[in-house]
Amino acid sequence: MDVPIHVADGATRVYGIIGDPIAQVKSPGVFNERFRALGKNAVMIPLQTKPANFDACMRGLKSLVNLHGILVTLPYKNSVVAHVDTVLPAARRIGAVNALRREADGRWSGDIFDGQGFLSGLRARDFDPKGRSVMLVGAGGAGSAIADALGEAEAADITIFDRIEEKGRLLVEKITQTHSKCRAKSSEPTVVGKDLLINATPVGMAPGDGLPVAVKSFDARLFVADIVPEPEVTPLLAAAKNSGCRTMDGAAMVAGQADAILRFFGLF
Amino acid sequence: MDVPIHVADGATRVYGIIGDPIAQVKSPGVFNERFRALGKNAVMIPLQTKPANFDACMRGLKSLVNLHGILVTLPYKNSVVAHVDTVLPAARRIGAVNALRREADGRWSGDIFDGQGFLSGLRARDFDPKGRSVMLVGAGGAGSAIADALGEAEAADITIFDRIEEKGRLLVEKITQTHSKCRAKSSEPTVVGKDLLINATPVGMAPGDGLPVAVKSFDARLFVADIVPEPEVTPLLAAAKNSGCRTMDGAAMVAGQADAILRFFGLF
């Protein structure tokens, strides 16, 4: 395809995605293609910092007046909230942020789009969570956003597991309070009687990672979703495909979020 | 020209150029073209921060483990030295840094390439400063590096002006100490008896800026160089062209530096 060269120059609007690790993230590719298609002089770059340096890093990044937005990925979706001046309602409910934008006055607003992106992906694959039974593994930033969105979408029940028991319990409480039609409880990962299994942990990202659940084969009626963006087929998704299940990978959630985030950035 | 799309992804090596203002800098365009030509998955982005935030900004940027190098432009070439772990000899002599690289152990080394780039540009235009008489306006980071390089190249004499008198005087002392064959003195800007006039201040960058010298026409034998990168033809260069002088613009210095900096970054 014959396309014009896209060159960052001094006037380029800069956007970044911060996380640790970072090489696996899909957002720079997805957003740079979208910027080009929209004719914007903008670039999305990966930003990796270690947890011990995260606060200093955010202070430094926020001082860059030509940095217009920051996406946030693992493990910083919760800890970034302290750096946001205006936390928008969904993000406040969930206690996590995955997109920040610089406002005209230099203050930073933050919102979370994981849940919205996840739901778009499910629906694009003809899976409507309404009235369904869900097993969610991982109650961090992404897991919380997904649980909140599934509550909004009136899933019948959500069972939540996090290896930090307190984290799982708190998310169950939150869903119970905010989404009365959805029964939430915490338990060890199980697929018995479930319609939808979701991995919202990094398990499957590192070579040699096993499965986030203790079973290796599934009922073919189970829908299996994994938020891990790389590899494309995690061990969990491989096992699900072997069992004949429908699946959704991490890239689908990223794609589902892109439109909403571009709108939040004022670029779409 | 039919060239492949260059898309930043999660594994892209990030380089930045920090300054204030930043929209006028040419380095992102120059380096992104070079990265593409060299087949490197790397991007150079503009980074703008205000002086009050510079130290916090540098601390944040240095914590980014996928940021491999930082170019430094006005007004930070001097103040950045405090953030460099290993200041290389030319930069130590000049007291200014315009390129930092992250070493394998996470420490940062800094060097200055302004002088080298400036000389390459002059020589590419068949002007050899050896034995010549020079008027240099501006004794900041770039001015100091240019004076040092002209001393190395055995210019006969350099007259230096800075609106902060102390700054000009200190640079004269430094050149006198380090380059005994080159007579350095400070005085108001003059072109009388000079072979080479150099503007190493930001004057000419902002709309409505006048000239960095008090005269509007020159002897046609004078060579006039301006380090301001944008506009391409500053008021000074326009006046010089009107007088029939040979000229060199800020872009030429950037181009002259690119090879040396790519080598410093280990990419060339």
Molecular structure report:
The structure is a homodimer of 268-residue chains. With 268 residues, the first copy, chain A, is of the alpha/beta class. Chain A folds into 2 domains: 13-113 and 254-264, Rossmann fold; 115-253, NAD(P)-binding Rossmann-like Domain (Rossmann fold), CATH 3.40.50. Chain A is built from 8 helices and 12 strands. Chain A has helices at residues 27-38, 54-62, 89-94, 114-124, 141-152, 165-178, 235-242, 250-264; strands spanning 13-19, 42-48, 67-72, 86-87, 99-102, 108-111, 133-137, 157-161, 183-186, 196-199, 223-226, 246-248. In chain A, the strands form 2 sheets. A 6-stranded mixed β-sheet of chain A has the order 2-1-3-5-6-4. Chain A has a 6-stranded parallel β-sheet with strand order 9-8-7-10-11-12, sandwiched between helices. In chain A, helix 5 (141-152) links the parallel strand 7 and strand 8. In chain A, helix 4 (114-124) crosses helix 8. The longest helix of chain A is centred in the last third of the chain and has 15 residues, at 250-264. Chain A is globular, with a radius of gyration of 18 Å. In chain A, 53% of the residues are buried. Mean pLDDT of chain A is 93; it is low at 1-5. The interface between A and B is large, with 45 and 45 residues.
